[in-house]
Amino acid sequence: MRMYDQLASIVSKENIVQNKPLKNHTYTRLGGNADYFVTPVTYEQVQHVVKLANQEKVPFTLLGNGSNLIIKDGGIRGIVMYLGKLAAITVEGTKIIAGSGALIANVSKQALTNHLTGLEFACGIPGSVGGALFMNAGAYGGEIKDVLLRAKIVDRDGELKVMEAKDLDLSYRTSNIPTNGYIVLEAEFGLEVGDFKQIKAVMHDLTYKRESKQPLEYPTCGSVFKRPPGYFAGKLIQDSGLQGKQIGGAQVSLKHAGFIINKDEASAKEYITLIEYVQQVVKEKYGVSLEREVRIIGEDG
Question: In what order do the strands lie in the sheet with 220-223?
Fold first, then answer.
């Protein structure tokens, strides 16, 4: 109980849950429990939790919106910190400042409301702002690095810093945020004034493309693999005859081969086994190594 009491002194008891099921916090609906699930409501609380984890040598994991994540069946030990309550979105002229826990799609909608162009590509991305920076999220030709000015972060030591976008090494579906152990608190985006009707039309078109092509009716982590140079992951999987391939409750989507769906209460183990099987078959048939875009964390059940 000592750890619980220490955490409660930082974030108060209503913001801590012990042995919390994590499957409700991932888009795949997979994963075991967290020892301590902590939801800070201020930046200072984030800093104090990080410092406590360091001081007590307790494992620490940051959880975003869970859209590009698989949590294993054994769950996550130590402290899992969720930033969903740090979700404020503020518009200042052509800039938008958004908390890490805000959905990047909601930031895109705020841009539309304020006649600002540049974030149309993000209208259908399901992740949080923090997650979008973490992996330099992108879609339909746009990506976060195109519009990010700077970010407020907490480092591994619990210190608050402002980082310019150029110092985050944003490139295709990656950044230095995970390697440096940064926790994104907020992001500042630089946009341009645009025509409301035009922005809305682009967002409408992208939403149609996404909904018509992606299996959104099932739990899924989104696009499982990064695009291999010179190829499309979905086409390689489709040409390998893997659409409809099922292991347990996990299935390669019939609608879009780049997606794996949780069709029938799959376990994380079944889902991961299917990912590895797809990688193996594509490598054997085409000599192409598919690199995962989705992150896998936690312990085996």
Answer: 220-223, 259-262, 250-252, 246-247
The residue type of 97 is I
Across the range 16-31, mean pLDDT stands at 95
Q: Evaluate if residue 1 carries a pLDDT over 80.
A: no
**pTM for the full predicted model:** 0.92
Helices (H) and strands (E) in the chain, counts: 8, 19
E strands, the chain, where? 16-21, 33-38, 60-63, 69-71, 76-82, 89-92, 95-99, 116-117, 138-139, 142-143, 148-154, 160-164, 183-190, 192-193, 220-223, 246-247, 250-252, 259-262, 295-297
pLDDT tens for each residue of 181-230: 999 999 999 999 999 999 999 999 999 999 898 998 999 998 999 999 99
Residue 250 pLDDT level (bands cut at 50, 70, 90): very high
Q: Which position has the token pair 């693999």?
A: 225
Which residue reads 């480092």 in tokens? 155
Tokens of 179: 């390697």
Residue type (1 letter), 65: N
Catalytic residue annotation? 173, 223, 293
The answer to whether residue 22 scores a pLDDT higher than 80 is yes
Q: Could you tell me the domains of the chain? A: 2-82 (3.30.43.10), 89-198 (3.30.465.10), 215-297 (3.90.78.10)
Sign (positive or negative) of CA dihedral 191, 192, 198, 200: positive
- Nearest Cα to 215, choosing from 154, 171, 262, 156? 262
